[in-house]
């Protein structure tokens, strides 16, 4: 057991972290303590251990549970936080044994999100995730109101309090989903407007606390809240910037990712994360000094895959080079490996090179030229119209569609592949567009 200095105020918390033999992604002690501090907990002790599998009653074994209980009494702790997801039954059993509140990893992250959400839709998304989590935690704590009890003043309205709670939760979840649907429609309209104006979107992604918001502020001269803590930014922020070649792009700052991000949060923030899935390019920001950067890269890419953004091209941005004295550098993309650009968002070192690289990247990714499509490929023509990519159209004497187009190269190749055509077969007077 690791002890901490006795705090003067706040929730005194005992942290519990158990290593399991078959765990593919070992738990990170530093991250866990940072999460607890980010939630406002005052850590009095960290208890660790190892097991083959979780105990159905206490999650930990009975002996370890008694050790945690003694620690709670010794430090007069108000809270025990597990770096794991507990079942509702385990949570109830542990609270009864410890005689204090017990919080699991999902509950802890939800609490942090609730503190950080600022915008109306951000708060709605957090509330939705909390309600879904809470709906699995409803217990029969209101048995005195059950219809079986009866008695004067205790006869219920024909349903138990538990059933009432479930019904009220279901109603509220339905209301929030309707409101979030409106938010999603508004965001979709914004994305369609940007697509129509042919403004590329670049989304910043990365493990929480990698420096995304600091980089966003440095590139856009914005004033987005940035702090050395987990999940400092929740609500997506969009800003327009001009690259050195005068091309305009939209930069998006989004919520940071984390290992074992609760599924309810991924689902609730899907409309926010859609900005990432619909982006033209991802800037994957990493802390260049972090020894676990390879693990964090895998975790971020796992979430990116979960939200359907795995096909979006990436550039890796190695941030915080000022802490190690490294110089800015660019390693060009090679095969399946993305380009790697080393910068310091704090000092600005490497940022001009990053912007120039983005200018070169987008100059290469827009196709502008003439396509000649056989008459049977009306579906492909319809896709191009839907993308608002057709600048001019003519019909040849052979009934072919002769189209002057301007479109993202990736999307064009995707549509051509679906139509079993190649760019060489249909393109004439083709050239990459220099925007």
Walk me through this protein's architecture.
The protein has 435 residues and is of the alpha/beta class. Helices cover 40% and strands 22% of the residues. The protein has 14 helices and 16 strands. The chain has helices at 29-38, 62-75, 88-98, 105-116, 120-135, 161-196, 212-220, 263-268, 270-277, 293-306, 351-364, 378-386, 409-418, 423-426, and strands at residues 2-3, 11-20, 41-51, 79-82, 101-103, 201-206, 237-242, 248-253, 281-287, 314-319, 329-331, 340-342, 366-373, 390-395, 401-408, 427-432. A seven-stranded mixed beta sheet has the order 7-8-6-9-10-12-11. A five-stranded mixed beta sheet has the order 1-3-2-4-5, sandwiched between helices. Strands 14-15-13-16 form a four-stranded antiparallel beta sheet. A hairpin with a 5-residue loop joins β7 and β8 (248-253). α5 (120-135) packs antiparallel against α6 (161-196). The longest helix is centred in the middle third of the chain and has 36 residues, at 161-196. The model is unreliable at 3-10, 140-156 and 431-435 (pLDDT under 50).
